[in-house]
């Protein structure tokens, strides 16, 4: 997050174990509720992304946005690799253009995840074609 912003970003770490966020839904919900403000646009992973942690975070954010009346934009990650395009025929998409500075920052941020691209002695966790989605001149959000 800090690589993506030109100004200071406060990061709140909840210490939830990778792959087990679903076991801590109450803690996650409370943390999100303590951070949002009325009218604030929430950004969350797509609730059917295909990764258990992304799915539970996305679902909780959908619930909170609906009950609190906050706008919500959801971003796909693993969806780019596993989804059937027909799944999204009736979905509203938003496109957020990135200027050159934002693209540079995003490139630096993606370098923090080199292990997802080239893990030692294994096939990459994220297939090569998937990275092209993260190098576009815009972000795509499900609205």
Tell me the number of strands: 4
- Pattern of helices and strands: HEHEHEHHHE
Low-confidence stretches: none
Apparent shape: globular
The rounded Rg comes to 16 Å
Biggest sheet features:
2 strands, parallel
Task: State the strand order across the main sheet.
Answer: 1-2
User: Hey, roughly how much beta strand do the residues contain?
Assistant: 5-15%
Helix- and strand-based class? alpha+beta
What does this protein structure show overall?
With 143 residues, this protein is of the alpha+beta class. The protein has six helices and four strands, in the order H-E-H-E-H-E-H-H-H-E. The chain has a two-stranded parallel ribbon with strand order 1-2. Strands 3-4 form a two-stranded antiparallel sheet. Helix 1 packs across helix 2 (52-68).
SSE inventory with pairings:
Blueprint: H1 25-35, E1 42-45, H2 52-68, E2 72-75, H3 79-82, E3 93-97, H4 100-110, H5 114-117, H6 128-131, E4 138-142
Helix pairs in contact: 1-2
Summary?
The protein is of the alpha+beta class and 143 residues long.
Keywords for this entry:
alpha+beta, 4 strands, two-stranded antiparallel ribbon, 6 helices, two-stranded parallel ribbon
């Amino acid at each position: 997050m800090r690589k993506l912003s030109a100004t200071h970003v406060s990061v709140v770490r909840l210490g939830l174990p990778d792959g087990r966020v679903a076991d801590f839904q109450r803690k996650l919900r409370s943390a999100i509720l303590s951070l949002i403000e009325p009218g604030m646009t929430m950004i969350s992973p797509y609730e059917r992304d295909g990764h258990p942690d992304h799915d539970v975070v996305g679902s909780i954010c959908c619930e909170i946005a609906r009950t609190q009346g906050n706008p919500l934009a959801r971003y796909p990650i693993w969806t780019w690799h596993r989804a059937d395009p027909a799944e999204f025929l009736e979905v509203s998409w938003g496109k957020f253009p990135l200027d050159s500075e934002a693209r540079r920052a995003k490139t630096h941020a993606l370098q923090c995840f080199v292990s997802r691209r080239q893990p030692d002695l294994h096939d990459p966790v994220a297939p090569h074609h998937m990275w092209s989605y993260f190098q576009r001149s815009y972000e795509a959000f499900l609205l």
